[in-house]
Amino acid sequence: MMEKKIQRRQFLKSTAAAGMGLTILPSGTLFGANAPSNKLNVALIGTWGRALAHFNAISSENVVALCDVDENHLTGAVKKWPKAKTYVDWRKCLEQKDLDAVVCCTTDQTHAFVANWALSRDLHIYCEKPLGNCVNEVRVVRANYLKKKNKLATQVGTQRHANPNFNRVRELIIDGAIGDLKHVYAWGNRQIPKPGYLPAKGDPPKNLHYDLWIGPAPFHPYNPEYFSGGPGANCLHWNMYWDFGSGQIGDMGSHTMDLAWCAIDGGLPTSCEATGDPFNPDVTPVKMESTVQLPANDWRGPIGLTWCQGGAMPRSPKGYVDLNRIGHGVMFKGTKGYVIADFGSRMLLPFGNDADMSYYNRRDKDEMIPDLGHFQKEWSNAAKGNLKTTCDFEYSGNLIEQMLLGLVAYRVGKKIEYDGAAGRVTNNAEADALLSRKYRPGWKLNG
Ligand SMILES: NC(=O)c1ccc[n+]([C@@H]2O[C@H](COP(=O)([O-])OP(=O)(O)OC[C@H]3O[C@@H](n4cnc5c(N)ncnc54)[C@H](O)[C@@H]3O)[C@@H](O)[C@H]2O)c1
Q: Which tens digit of pLDDT belongs to each residue from 330-376?
C-alpha cells in the first residue's frame, strides 16, 4: 500500500512539474495542470463554517473524504461531493488509505492533533489558524513538519498573507525605509467578553456528536450557545474559552501578527511579559498587552514585538494619526520613522532632522517580491510541485508559538525568560508547566 502511495506521490509531483513546463498544451492534455490524474485526494475535516471558504479551491482536486462532528453540517458537503466517504471522527477519517492531503477547519483545540496525525501519515495539510492551543502543541507539529518538509506541503490558514500589501510592507522594512528596525506593535480591537464556561443547557441534538466536539479538551457541558454563530463566525462563540481556543491573540492575532511577522524574519523569543484583565480561569482576557523580545538576525538587531488587544493600544507617534481608527493594524518603529499598516494599505512617517529619505533606495519594479497568487492553491500546487508555501508550519509555527507564549506570561503575571531551542521557560516553573495542556483520556497528540 505504502509503495503504491509513494508511486502515486511521485507521479503527482512529476506531472505537476511537467504541467508547469507545458502550459502551452491545450487543456485536457494528460499532463496539463487540470488532468484528472494530476489531482490530490483530499479529506476535508470540518465541512461547514470556515470550510465553505475552501469549497472552491478544493473542488479542482478529488475530495474523497468528509468529516464533521455535526451530521447536519456533513449534508451540505455531501451534496457537493456525493462520492466522498463520510466520518464524524477525524481519527477514523485519517485511516482512509487513498488520502494525499487534508484540509482542517475544526475547532482550535483539535488543530494540532489533526495536523500532527496527518503529518505522521505522510499527508499534506492545510490547517486553519491557529496551529495549536498551547506552545507545546505548536512545537510538536513544527518538529514533525521539519522532519518531513522534503516530502510534504503545509499551510496555516492566514490567507490575508496573499494580499500584495504584505510584500510592500516587507520591502519597506527590509530596505530600510524607516532606518534600523527597533520595535513592532500589532493590535486588534475586537472585544467579546464572557463571564465563564456556559452552564449546562439541554441535551445535544442527535445530529451533533458532542463528545467528539469536545475532543481532547477537558469536558464542559453542552450549551447551544457554543453553536449559535453563522457560518465562519461560529468560532466567536467558543474560541475565547481557554480549553477551546486562545482568544483574540490566536484569532485575529494570527492574521494581524502575520503582517508583522512577514516583515521581520522573527525567530523564537528570548523573553516575554504581558498584562491585562484580571485572570479568569475559564475565559481568555479581552484586554491584554504582550511583548516578546526577538533575537537579532542577519539584517537587523534584536527587536521587541508587542501585541495589544481589546482596548490596549500602542501610543500614536503623532497626534494627527489616530491608531484607534485602524481596527487591526501594525506599526513598525525604526531609527528614522514609522510604517503604519493594515491588511490592505500602509503609510510611511519619517521623523527627525535626518529622516530625509536619502538613505533609502526604493527597489525597482522588477525587484519587487512577486505576488503569491491564490493562497489555498499555493498549498495544493505546492503539494504537487516544489512543496514551498509562504505560511508553512515552520514560519507560522514560530509566529504562533510566540503568541501563545504571551498568554503564558499573562497567566503568571511576570516576565518570563524563554529558551526557544529547548522550549522551556527558564525562570518560572509555573509558566513552564503552562506551555502544555492536559488531554482527556483516549486522546493523543502523537497518534
Ligand atoms: N482563516 C480565516 O480567516 C478564518 C475565518 C473563520 C474561522 N477560521 C478558523 O476556522 C476554524 C473553524 O471556525 P468556524 O467559525 O468555522 O467554527 P465552527 O464551530 O463553525 O466549526 C466549523 C465546522 O467544523 C466542525 N467541527 C468542529 N469540531 C470538529 C471536529 N473535532 N471534527 C470534525 N468537525 C468538527 C463543526 O461542526 C463545523 O461544521 C477555527 O479554528 C477558526 O479560527 C479561520
A: 999 999 999 999 999 999 999 999 899 999 999 999 999 999 999 99
SS3 content of the chain, % helix, strand, coil (to 5): 35, 20, 45
- Flag whether pLDDT at 410 surpasses 60: yes
- Where b means 16+ CB within 10 Å and e means fewer, 369-401 reads eeebeebbbbbbbbbbbebebbbbbebbbbbbb
**Confidence band of 114 (pLDDT split at 50, 70, 90):** very high
- Domain ranges in the chain are 2-160, 163-192+247-370+393-433
Is the Cβ atom of 129 under 6 angstroms away from ligand 1? yes
Cα diameter, the chain: 69
Expressed in angstroms and rounded, the spacing between residue 46 Cα and the centre of ligand 1 is 6
Cross-strand bridge partners of residue 98: none
Please identify, by atom number, the ligand 1 atom nearest to the C-alpha of residue 90.
32
Looking at the domain 163-192+247-370+393-433, which fold is it?
Dihydrodipicolinate Reductase; domain 2 (3.30.360)
Distance 293 CA to ligand 1 centre (A): 32
The helix (run of H) or strand (run of E) holding residue 110 is: helix 108-120
List pLDDT tens digits, range 6-59: 454 454 554 444 433 333 333 333 344 444 559 999 999 999 999 999 999 999
Tell me the best of 107, 160, 249, 255 to mutate to test the pocket of ligand 1, counting ligand atoms within 8 Å of each CB and taking the most.
Answer: 107
Q: Selecting from 3.40.50.300, 3.90.226.10, 3.40.50.720, 3.90.79.10, what CATH number does the domain 2-160 have?
A: 3.40.50.720
Q: How confident is the model at residue 174 (pLDDT cuts 50, 70, 90)?
A: very high
Answer yes or no: is the C-beta of 213 below 6 A from any ligand 1 atom: yes
Instruction: Report CA 428 to chain centroid distance, whole Å.
Output: 28
- 2-160 and 163-192+247-370+393-433: same fold? no
Ligand 1 centroid–CA 108 distance in Å is 8
State the distance from the centre of ligand 1 to the C-alpha of 128, rounded, in angstroms. Answer: 8
**pLDDT at site 12:** 53
The ligand 1 atom at the shortest distance from the C-alpha of residue 49 is: 16
126 lines ligand 1 (CB under 6 A): no
